[in-house]
Amino acid sequence: MKFQCEACERLIPLESYRLESGGLVVSCQRCGAENRARAAQPLAASPSVGGDPFASPRTAEEPVLEASGRVSAPALRVVRGAVATSPPLDDDALFAPPTGHCPKCVSARREVDTSCSQCGLVYANFVESEHQPSEALRDEWRRLAGEWGQWEAHDRLLTLAMGRGELATAGRLYRVRLARAPDDAVAQRAREEIVRRATLVVPTEVEGAGPSLLSRRMRGAAIAVLFLVVLLMTAFIIQRVGVLMSGDVP
Description:
The chain is elongated. By secondary structure, the chain is an alpha+beta fold. Strand 1 (2-4) and strand 2 (11-13) form a beta hairpin. It has 6 helices and 7 strands; from the N terminus they run βββββββαααααα.
């Protein structure tokens, strides 16, 4: 379920709300404006505009929206069923960003720009084959498009991408989807899950530090022993040379 914010006119998932003074208060996560829906007073005793006594009166169930800082606003618009809308099944819509977006990081771009301000890509140097998912991930992404509203299907794709080391590639695919459908709450949730899973990949540098430190210590000890042996041999040779020169050879 979504609602249309009266301040920024965007469709926002209805995730949090509160009741205040007998009305519903919904905060927009994008612009921070508070949208208020209150019950209108019955107008059964009042004639409608134009003086028609037979016009239907306004009921108390009709919500009226009041955006913070505004004098008046239309009724709160709630949009149902828009979250689980499946993407098109053709490869151009599934794998390629729409016009006006960077082909690499899928951020918004201007026609006059020659490079991306986000990832630094020079558009003329873009090689599409270098940023394509593996064939296994491509097949799973096509399959996912047919069952977009089922979170188990997204979890299956993310598990495959994580096992193949393609979490970043999966993230780009979801960015492509969000570039075409910015209000897709399923794609937004999947991107958050990708970030969470990426933090679970802990580097193994600490595990490899033990043998590496021991190796350095052993190498240092070997060098010290070798230096001591060379020093003793040098002292012995100097002593023998001194004896030979003094003529005290037995």
